[in-house]
Amino acid sequence: MPCSAECRYHGEEPEPGQQMAWAAACLCLESVSGAGGPKRAAQGLAGVVFLGVGLWAWSEKGVLSDLTKVTRMHGIDPVVLVLMVGVVMFTLGFAGCVGALRENICLLNFFCSAIVLIFFLELAVAVLAFLFQDWVRDRFREFFESNIRSYRDDIDLQNLIDSLQKANQCCGAYGPEDWDLNVYFNCSGASYSREKCGVPFSCCVPDPAQKVVNTQCGYDVRTQLKSKWDESIFTKGCIQALEGWLPRNIYIVAGVFIAISLLQIFGIFLARTLISDIEAVKAGHHF
């Protein structure tokens, strides 16, 4: 990697003992100001943002003062996913940026190996999901039903399910009857909830005339005849809706996957190039 104009010698040629440090400084500047530097810095900053948002959300829900709330929840807390993404992005950004700044081959090798691992994990998940579609469908059903049970236990999970049902115009995993799994919407005689035999408002067919969302539109809906359900709520399950959505948007999904893969390959290439350049500088081969 040739030095930029800012890195070239000005005036007298440095002594042999100073040339190594000068070359390393040049390499360091190139690694930060070049194509890979902003990418690594942005990755680290994005990780900090995700971590900040996740910790703020946990603070608002009182989880930071009582971490056992996470383990007591039967469904998944979306904040956990945000924090996991933040930790991974911050770790990779830190390893890549500091590794380039300090010419630390260990950190750069860690960065490169982690990106390679993530790339092959994504590829493996995509291939396995295609080959074992029935197994994936069953696991997703179990996952969705588990979160239906915890619908009222966490506001973030509740918002996530509502967004999924509204966006896909669906209700439950395979239909509105799945909401019997939730203690508040269960139709059994033992339930005294006002939402008994109902569904969340996100299952309701929107009324164009209403400008304010009616959060009680799903009350007592399932006490009616099934033939009348489709007049007021979505009767298609979300698993069926997602299975129908994927073929219609296969090119978008493939494009996103290819774009992410190319970015990862580009990051691997930059890391390996930088490692080679650092090793060349340390070996005394000047640019």
Please tally the β strands and state the result: 0
Percentage of β-strand residues:
under 5%
Percent of residues in helices comes to 55-70%
Distance between the termini: 7 Å
Low-confidence spans: 1-35
- SSE order: HHHHHHHHH
Question: How many H/I helices?
Answer: 9
Summed over residues and divided by their number, the pLDDT gives a mean of 78
Rg result: 27 Å
Q: Which structural class best describes the helix and strand composition?
A: mainly alpha
Largest sheet: none
Shape: elongated
Transmembrane segments: 79-101, 107-132, 250-271
GO cellular component, one term: plasma membrane
Main location: membrane
Pfam families: Tetraspanin
Report on this model:
Belongs to the tetraspanin (TM4SF) family. Keywords: Cell membrane, Disulfide bond, Glycoprotein, Membrane, Transmembrane, Transmembrane helix. With 287 residues, the protein is mainly alpha-helical. Helix content is 61%, strand content 0%. It contains nine helices and no strands. The relative contact order is 0.11. Residues 1-35 have low confidence and may be disordered.
